[in-house]
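Attaching the record inline, Q. Sequence:
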Amino acid sequence: MLESQTIKEAVDSALEVRVVGLSGSLRSPSATRMAVQYALKGAEEEGAKIEVLDLAAYNLPYWGLEREETNVKAVGLFRNDLRASDGIILGTPEMHGSISGVLKNALDLAGTEEFEGKMVGLVGVAGGRMGAIEALSHLRAIGRSLHAWVVPAQVSIGDSVQAFNLNGEPTDPELGDRLKSVGREVAHFARLHKCENHAQFLREWETRPSISK
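Structure, as predicted:
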């Protein structure tokens, strides 16, 4: 009985998936953070352990200063937390047609060691009606350069001031479903990839619909 329990615990541990979220806005509260948190709910529904990594709390330096003695610890902690994840949801406000400087700096401080082979989901937020398509396109390119698997599902949110209520819930149920679908895809494919079920992983990945907005 003890041996069976030990085997079950080992299997459960192998199947355990951790998905983290990064918000490219330091405002509190912010539509970007609420979008990331809601996407993470989808990952949680898929059985993943979830966590938002608060970029403000790390007190990260600008890229180029990361090797200074006072900055090594903060950067090391941030990279370790990323490395311990199986999937990552990146959220950004669209700033001048691209991603926020806050998120870009954080990604510049990381590298392929933190992202290679991991599932990445994308969420973009903008104040205007056009949404954050440019920012999402740039994030997708960054994900590829980091050797990550960027899931097809992504969410572009326009009119961000109207998008969430004070409790962080989307005002449009359809938006909530789309955000959760990003989290679910990240967690689902992360589990397949982690369990080395490569045949099923590739079969399901190749049959996914094209990028959704």
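The longest strand covers residues 149-157. Residues 7-12 have pLDDT under 50 and may be disordered.

More tomorrow.
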